[in-house]
Design goal:
mainly alpha; 83% helix; 232 residues
């Protein structure tokens, strides 16, 4: 896999993960309503700092093992199987309409519920105040590291991609990380722009279509990972 291919595939697979509903999306929407357009990019900065630290830790501590043929093949097979699972799941969810994209602010919803129910516990209010005062960069770090799906992705797909990228040395690893983080930046910046602009062009049909296309790409890339792991 060449440098350009690593960058492009890393961007697409990163984008495929970014567009799936999750805690980072929810926080981005909520923070944008309070802080404006820069909330999304700042949250991605925190997310990227954590991922860069993780990559450096994986490479620094596991570089000797990652270069061993049978280990890199095993990692690629594991990552490929997980990509196939993700791809099939995304396509099926898109076809069956199980994915929704809601541009609502969960904190506003919680505030309304609080007004209707005077018995909400005081510690919930304290948590809201703490999150409200937290810097978006720090919030991006904490939300990411608390997501078990994020950890699972990095010990399977992410580690497999690092293994393949390291065949091209530092440049390959840099291409992988750059493509991956630019995908996050592009998507969450778009989300912030949509929230600020009040637009609703990301309707359910378009969103499901994007999910399906990304699912097909993940399935194909999973096949490549399996091929690399079995016949490399």
């Amino acid at each position: 896999m060449g440098i350009y291919t690593i960058f492009v595939t890393s961007f697409v697979i990163g984008f495929s993960g970014a567009i799936m509903p999750g805690p980072l999306l929810t926080v981005t929407i909520a923070e944008t309503t309070r802080r404006g357009l820069w909330a999304g990019p700042l949250i991605v900065v925190g997310h990227g700092i954590l991922e860069l630290a993780l990559i450096l830790a994986l490479v620094g501590g596991l570089s000797v093992f990652l270069t061993a043929g049978f280990i890199s093949q095993a990692i690629a097979i594991l990552g490929g199987a997980f990509l196939l699972y993700m791809g099939i799941g995304m396509v099926c969810d898109a076809i069956k309409g199980r994915i929704t994209f809601q541009m609502n602010d969960p904190l506003l919803d919680e505030a309304k519920a609080r007004d209707e129910n005077a018995n909400i516990k005081s510690d919930r209010a304290g948590q809201r105040n703490m999150l409200k005062n937290m810097h978006p960069v720090l919030m991006g770090i904490l939300v990411s590291i608390s997501n078990p799906y994020w950890i699972l992705w990095w010990v399977t797909v992410g580690l497999g991609y690092i293994t393949i990228s390291m065949e091209k040395g530092t440049l390959g690893l840099t291409s992988f990380f750059t493509g991956h983080i630019l995908a996050d930046l592009a998507w969450y910046s778009l989300i912030s722009a949509v929230v600020v602009g009040g637009m609703r062009f990301l309707n359910a049909k378009i969103y499901s279509g994007v999910i399906a296309v990304c699912g097909v790409f993940l399935f194909a890339l999973g096949g490549y990972f399996l091929h690399y792991g079995i016949w490399a």
